[in-house]
Amino acid sequence: MASTFFGMDIANSALSAAQVLMDVAGQNIANDATQGYSQQVAELAPTQPYAQPDMGGLYTPQLGTGVQVQEVQRVRAGYLDGLFRSTQSGESYYGTRSNYLTAIQSALDEPGSSGLSTAMNTFLSDFQTLSQDPQSTASRTVVQQDGEALAAQVQGIYKGLESVGQQAQSQASLDAQTVNTDLKQLGNLNQTIATAQALGQQPNDLLDERDNLLDSLSQLTNFSFTQNTTEVGSYDVTQVTVTMPAQGGGTVTLLDGGKYGSLSVQPTATSASSYASESAGLNLNAEEDTINGAAIDITSSDSLDSIAQKINDADAGVAATVVQNGSQYQLQLSSTTGQAIGGSGDDLFGTSAQGLGISLTSPQLAVSAQDADTGATSAVAPTGGSIGAAYAFVNQDLNPNYQGSLMSQLNGAVAALANAVNEQQEAGYYQDPTSGDWESGVPFFATSDGSSTITAANIALSSQVQGNTAYIAAAGTSGDVGDGSNATAIADIANESHGPLQQYSSFVSDMGSQVDLSQNLQGTAQSLLTQVTSQRSSTAGVSINDQMTNLMQAQTMYTAAAKVSEAMDSSLQSLISAIQP
Amino acid sequence: MRISDQMMTQNMTQGIDQAQTALARTTEEVSSGVSISEPSDNPVGTGQLLQFETARKQISAWQSNAQAAQSQMQTADQTLSELQNDLSSAESLATEANSGTTTTAQFQDMSQQAQSILNDVASLFNTQYGGQYIFSGTAQEQPVSGPDASGDYSTSAEQNSGTFTAQALEIGQGVKIPTSVNASPLLGGQTYTLSAYQDASTMPQWLQQRGEALGQVAAAGTSVGTSGSPFPSGEPSSTYVDSLTSPATTTTPLTTTSVSYGTSVVDVLGYLQQDLTSGNAAAVEADLGALQSQSETLSSVQAALGANEDRVQSAVSQLEQTSSTLQTQQGSVENVDMAQLISQLTAQQTAYQAAVAAAAQMKLPTLANYLT
Description:
The structure holds 2 protein chains of 2 kinds. Chain A contains 13 helices and 21 strands. By secondary structure, chain A is α+β, with helices and mostly antiparallel strands. Among the domains of chain A are: 109 residues, no CATH class; 168 residues, no CATH class; 90 residues, Alpha-Beta Plaits (2-Layer Sandwich), CATH 3.30.70. In chain A, 43% of the residues are buried. In chain B, helix 1 packs antiparallel against helix 9. The chains are: A alpha+beta, B mainly alpha.
């Protein structure tokens, strides 16, 4: 037989359960607008029933003893998280990429009267005017001035592209810092969550916080996230692991339980790499090498590590690190000053058969990751998120040596123009301003840095043409002051099919379509992301209607339980008053 | 599907954003009137625009060249007409002198007129355009002719040696037009330098005639010299007789001095003036023949110039047509279809207003509003 107050206890358990239900509804309503909050539900279950063998009858009845709150769980569909993060990584990649490309597009200012196309056209048609009166100093000066303006504009555009590249580099560097902070926080969260879960607690809010951090990490680069559940005692403990593919194969683990690694971006003007395999033995000849003018004394017994040490000790504005690249080790040089790295010597810069075969051209933005478990640093090539966008933009689009890149197209058009003008100028004749003799033409364009290759970075007027307009070779035959046929031939460069002007216009078209493409891809990723977000929100989001219904239900339950309690009380009251005199 | 509150907010914001972006883009196109303000708006169209611009720039350079050529040619045309007038005056002068009734005084008078015609012709050949001698071709800084220290007129070395190079301007893709007149047929001609008893039959007919009139050239079989004996048979039909200063019948012994004859228009006018001075009607007749043939040559030079002028004229109208075609093409790539755009704008405005109005109604009642 149950105790006298048994029923009161049942009512009491209902009262406290109803209160929890109301609390949970309150918490959900309070976080209706909180970003990344998952709605929580309290799961109720009947308490352990009470068997009553003394009631007689065929069966031994079990009496229910009330209700209890078994758990308060967050509602979340895990598979949507993975979809959300991979979509967001792509969306962020194309968004960032289209920002960088749009900046370049603005720097070019095409189509318009202030673009490079106009400057090139004007410069070439100046030669037509010169052909009308080859002796005219005014026409010659116009050619010279417009040539100078053209060179200055090309250099200006180059600097514009370079500065967008620098912005991308420093943004990637800031993003890497964010990654590192997030990784550290994630490590702490993994630990806290593990501790709580092992004690049977449900750290719903911490889980939300961890998911939010993973969401924001996915914007930055292409991490892979895995969730592993292990059993600790009788409770499940879920931990998140973050990995990333290493360059040349394998993966780098950036987060493993409480341990976290780091990502580093070297925003350098030039860095270098060598793919010499240390296991094959380094073929060093102990000659003296230099980096940025500082002597690096390499002996035949040096290893990659000791060479890196020597370079770092030389304090030449270059940081050397040994990173693993697949099965090979790689010596990576990065500039600490942002200046280009220069060097000489067979050991470091010779062919890989002779030494390390370091190439001083690419990549220009190096990203390396430190493993959370081993602490080893490996080179990574990010392909997603904002860091991936900066990596591709700097190392491919702005890399003059990368085939078909925007920079190589710009250089190609500029070099084509300069070389065509130079070639035709050299085919003509001019009258030497001092001796009065007729001479074969001299180049019109030269480089400002003494290099033999004209690029967008160094195009300038040759010193002769800069100094005296008489060096403009307008004449096609020696000795004829009135002969402007060579000037006409130079102006005709504008007609050439696949000539410099066409090369430039196809460069502008290509850039435009790349901006367009990245914007479209971002748009696609964006709408997919919206859809996934909706789906996620449909499951995990708070709905006031739901919560109100829950609240009503709990309220009704509370009122009814109070009624039960009151009924019990009055029953007992009538019993007590019956036995009283 | 379960709808959470954040979903509603997110979808609403996105709807307004999209409507606003589309509206902004259309407004930009309507206000600027061009559909391509950045390469990414239409990458292929941008490439076309840049090439149109190159073509337009070239056409305007060719147009400017054609204009310069036209002005220069007009100057040359005018000069040639004046030259033709001068030659006609010289011809009538020679005809008049040849009438047979001319007195010595009249010959002197005519000689002076011939001299002034010669001066005029010489200065016409030195006509300048923009500081350049128009008949000098690419050697534009050198005058064509002029009196030398001894007052004799000569033509420039280039014209005589036939190395004249015309200045040429480009007035179309690969089309070059000579802008300077080649007056070599008038100014050049040949110089015949002969020494005593040399064959004179290589010279033009009129020079032989004039030589005979002056007694400098003897036809085969005629008697010359002190001996009065005829040229031995086997001599050329016409032979220069070495006697510059006297008629053939002179008694002055023959010397071995040589002489040269020129055939340029300046030379002919010089001869005319000399022959008028000396009153040698037969020589003047020979000069008249030369003047007539020079006048024909001048006409052909004028015709050649006229043909070039026509070429430039037709090139100018062709360039204008190409330029307007180009403008039409450029417009079709670059300009917006305003009617279509305006209706699009109206539709987008409505969509945007609807999105905003819906957002204003966003605070839908929940169950909470009905619980008491």
